[in-house]
Design goal:
Elements: H1 14-32, H2 48-60, H3 63-78, H4 89-105, H5 108-130, H6 132-143, H7 147-160, H8 165-182, H9 187-195, H10 199-202, H11 209-220, H12 229-236, H13 241-254, H14 263-272, H15 302-317, H16 322-340, H17 345-357, H18 360-378, H19 381-390, H20 398-413, H21 416-434, H22 438-455, H23 460-469, H24 473-502
Length: about 500
């Protein structure tokens, strides 16, 4: 059935769409009639929306629709009228679905995403217009004269911009695309390099937005005393195995110690045969799509590194708060660009709005990912995965099992910080009860969140990187997954060994 809904099916039309949706809803209603009235008692059936989502994505490669339909499946399940109570199932579905969207849109997380990601789009567009990226590209082109050197410079730049994964992906991706294009690097591989030096590094750097967030979560859940969250986060850094390994694997792949394999090899073959650098459908995500490459009159690297420096400094100054950082940066850019005569106030506004508009597609994907995560919370998906995993836990095996179980959970939900909020209150007391090493178990949770979002098709990490590098997010995720799985396998071995040594 899903074949009729595929991107590659030229006979696809609106009637087929309606047919698929009707069948999905009808099957879900029939299935849900046999489930308990309380969603918390769904047990193994709580994984149904997740399974549907994964199957649908692989069958159709249509991620937006997959998220909407999977969320709808979940809301149909939780909208079942209680026995003996009146009410229409259909009305409940529409009510809960609309309330879910409203709740997500009104949440602080989404407001933060819109501010940070939207304005980061404006910052990138303004840097491009002012010639900052062009000047940097010209300078680094003199240093990076080969494919490997251009990619190694991309990796190094990703390490330098460590303060936040969004800042990292958007800045590095947009700056290095032109250079790697000159060396005929597939956009999928550039996206992999950029993505692997974003979140994986942020989780092992004590001065980052991730460190601040995780520190607060550790304090809230009672493991770290008030005011000492950062110290306890630092204790986890040596054991955040996935972050370390994922970042180290990148240069090994670039220089050929680890050969390119899987779907990524096919991407290189496409380019070698004279095909496009970006896979089909990438123009929908590319924040530079449709832009004419006009050479600036007086390009200056200051117009790139000045704003980035202000962004990093102001973000740190305000307690690693990116929303304040981007606002301060835009103010600095306005004054700087007006003073230099790079653009008029009207041009500044137009370019900023254009950059904001370019982020609509990524933001839409992230909103839908949060919606799907919301309904998964209602059917207790994450809780079921963790409680199921506890049945086979021993103190020695707990870090490994936690890493695997939560990596799967994060791959499905796509919201790493949201998963931390749910998982850590369960894992921390569980580790204490079983006598497992709490530091190691918390590290397993943090590593699982990074891994899951690293290879998820619709996670914020995947979507932002896809936009910055001009690569279809499905192709980015599917080509990156083998290398992510390699790093995950090595991480699992580390958690297994560490579990027997430390527990």
């Amino acid at each position: 059935m899903l074949k009729i809904f595929s991107q590659k099916n030229k006979k696809f039309n609106g009637k087929h769409t309606l047919l698929v949706i009707a069948i999905v809803i009808a099957v879900t209603v029939l299935f849900t009639t046999f489930l308990p009235a309380d969603p918390s008692n769904y047990g193994i059936f709580s994984i149904v929306p997740a399974i549907f989502l994964v199957v649908y994505i692989f069958a159709t490669q249509r991620i937006l629709e997959a998220l909407v339909l999977a969320s709808l499946v979940g809301y149909v399940m939780v909208s079942k009228p209680a026995a003996g109570e009146g009410g229409s199932w259909l009305i409940n579905v529409f009510t809960n679905f609309s309330e879910g969207i409203l709740g997500v849109m009104m949440s602080e997380d989404i407001a933060w995403l819109i501010i940070v990601c939207g304005l980061m789009g404006s910052i990138i567009a303004l840097i491009e217009k002012a010639g900052g990226s062009f000047a940097f590209g010209e300078w680094i082109a003199k240093k990076a004269k080969t494919e490997k050197s251009s990619l190694l410079w991309t990796w190094v730049l990703g390490i330098v911009i460590f303060i936040d994964d969004y800042l990292n992906s958007l800045t590095v991706g947009s700056c290095m695309t032109t250079l790697t294009d000159k060396h005929k690097v597939p956009r999928e591989f550039l996206a992999y390099v950029v993505d692997s030096t974003a979140a994986p590094l942020c989780v092992i750097i004590p001065i980052s937005t991730w460190a601040v967030f995780c520190s607060r979560i550790l304090e809230v859940n009672g493991w770290a005393p008030a005011g000492e969250g950062l110290f306890y986060f630092i204790k986890t850094i040596p054991f955040n195995f996935y972050g370390w390994i994922a970042a180290i694997v990148v240069p090994l792949v670039i220089i050929g110690v680890i050969p390119v394999f899987g779907p990524m090899k096919e991407a290189f073959h496409r380019v070698a045969q004279g095909g496009p650098l970006a896979p089909p459908g990438s123009e929908k995500f590319d924040i530079k799509a449709g832009k004419n490459n006009i050479v600036p009159t007086h390009p200056k690297m200051f117009n790139l590194f000045g704003p980035i420096g202000v962004l990093i400094a102001s973000t740190i100054f305000f307690g690693c708060e990116m929303s304040m950082g981007v606002i301060c940066t835009l103010g600095f850019m306005f004054v700087s660009y007006m003073w230099q005569g790079v653009m008029t106030a009207e041009e500044f506004t137009d370019v900023a709005l254009e950059g904001l508009k370019n982020m609509i597609m990524p933001l839409m994907l992230m909103v839908l990912a949060f919606l799907f995560a919301d309904v998964n919370d209602q059917i207790h998906f994450t809780y079921y995965i963790i409680t199921s995993a506890t049945k086979v836990m021993t103190p020695e095996l707990m870090p490994l099992i936690i890493f695997i179980a939560l990596a799967i959970t994060e791959f499905i939900t796509g919201t790493n910080w949201g998963m931390y909020i749910i998982a850590l209150p369960i894992v921390i007391p569980l580790a204490a009860t079983l006598g497992a090493d709490t530091t190691l178990c918390v590290s397993a949770v943090l590593s699982a969140g990074v891994f899951g979002s690293h290879i998820c098709f619709y996670s914020d990490a995947t979507v932002i990187t896809s936009s910055a590098t001009g690569c279809n997010n499905f192709d980015h995720a599917i080509t990156q997954a083998p290398f992510g799985l390699l790093a995950a396998a090595l991480s699992a071995v580390c958690f297994l060994v560490a579990g027997f040594i430390m527990c």
